[in-house]
Amino acid sequence: MKELKVQPIKNGTVIDHIEAGNAVKVLHILGIPKTSSSSVSVAMNVRSKLGKKDIVKVENRELDPNEVDKIALIAPKATINIIRNYEVAEKYRVQLPDEIIGIVRCSNPTCVSNSKKEPVSTRFIVVEKDPPRIKCYYCEREPDDIADRII
Ligand code: CTP
Ligand code: ZN
Fold first, then answer.
1. 13, 88 Cβ separation under 8 angstroms
2. Per-residue pLDDT averaged across 13-18, rounded?
């Protein structure tokens, strides 16, 4: 029998296969609870085929591509399931693009992307997708605390 840890939802998005412990970071990316009032349920340390995982279910909301890229940075194995009328209408795995623009702040204080005089969008080259490794296009610095540097 399939065990249901969290109620199915009628409409919305289920972010599944989040590395155990990272659900809180996903909530932060989605602006929950600060800027979003969507109903959300979270399951943490759920047993699955590949060890433990977290799941985030957001009702009545679909994610924008920017949010999906941010999730890919902290949960590279996550799947996004779009639920319509209780059915999984779409399912895809997050996929980091080769470059990420305006999503992560560079950790180098003297980087041109941190300059107040000449504001340029932050830009990173994705060196590795899983586990994610990124390198600043301008100064080549690799932040090691990506989750804390997401804008
Ligand atoms: N789900 C939900 N509400 C629904 C339908 C599905 O919350 N009405 C959730 C399920 O609990 C699961 C995820 O959406 O966490 C994906 O559902 P499904 O594709 O049915 O599950 P699996 O086949 O186990 O998915 P996968 O193969 O991606 O592991
Ligand atoms: Zn830089």
1. no
2. 98
